[in-house]
Amino acid sequence: MAAYIESETLELKAKFTDAICKEIVAFLNTGGGDIIIGVSDDGTVVGVDKIDETSKKISDIITDQIEPNPQSSVSSEIRYAEGKTLLIVHIRKGVRPLYCQKKYGFSSAGCVMRIGTTCKNMTQEQIRTRYEKNYIDSDFMLLTPAKYGSISFKTLKVYYTEKGYHLDDLTFEMNLNLRTPDGGYNQLAELLSDKNMIPLITVKFQGEDKTAVSERNDYGNQCLLFGYEQLKNRLAAENICVSDTTVRPRIDRYLFDFDCANEALINALVHNDWNLSQPLVSFLVIELKFFLMAGYRKGRRKRCFLKA
Questions:
Q1: Smallest Cα–Cα separation from 145: which of 97, 177, 179?
Q2: Beta bridge partners of 119
Q3: Cβ contacts of residue 187 below 8 Å, gap of 6+?
Q4: Cis peptide before 68, with omega less than 30 degrees from 0?
């Protein structure tokens, strides 16, 4: 008979409770560990009756109740002991410096760590230090394993070739840091792969609000660099030039400053936390209409939203 004793890396739960969310966050913020559901605090095996329902609740916690999303660091396993079913939740140390329970946010109540066999609230200083590291340390993308599909880089190689660079088949993955220390592909590789699950959508709305969509285009699910080029070309196409020919020399006006808009798009893609969500870029532009017969200019608002 297996002996179960709580420790710094092992938490025992007789049944599922909402406190399991807190335990997962604590392990993520510390050194990782396991939660065994179906074993009481004294080590007695009681089992889990509704294993499918309990598994779903654990899945909901991982996807909906913890920030940032820890899916790459949490897995579950079903075991049998003494003729009863146990659910084991394996938690590796998080790839991000700080995790919290969403309902409490990045507060002392939301950010906990494992000390001994208990969860302790972090101090404000600990939270501040880790929170800042979230945005200073850029290696998390290189450490986070890819989540979806097969990885290939035909489009990336074509993109580099068109820019005058050659990617050596034997070394480019190492040179571009496309693998985790364990040897698997990382999140950066997923973003640069021929196919991925990242949407890159442009939406143009009719009028001055978001009630009516006049045009929608999707450039996603492909190499991020190639998708960016298509988005940039779309921006250029939207930047209509309006000319005033009533004066000499004529005056050409564009709807917006293309360089500024392109920089906003690049910043949204480069500085986005892809573990949390896709970026959203919105542009409000003024389209000048010239009425030559009336002899005056009238401005009409037009909104162009770009969602990446």
A1: 179
A2: 114
A3: 141, 142, 144, 145, 146, 147, 274, 275
A4: yes
Which residue's entry shows tokens 């079913």? Answer: 85
pTM: 0.50
Q: Using alpha carbons, list the distances in angstroms from residue 228 to 47, 164, 201, 221, 270.
A: 51, 18, 11, 12, 11
Residue-level length of the chain: 308
**pLDDT 10s digit of each residue in the chain, 308 long?**
457 899 999 999 999 999 999 999 999 999 999 999 999 999 999 999 999 999 999 999 999 999 999 988 999 999 999 999 999 999 999 988 899 999 999 899 999 999 999 999 999 999 988 887 765 555 677 888 888 768 999 999 998 898 888 888 888 888 888 988 888 899 899 999 999 888 888 887 777 777 777 888 888 889 999 999 998 998 898 888 888 888 888 888 888 888 988 898 888 888 777 766 677 666 554 444 333 333 333 334 444 444 44
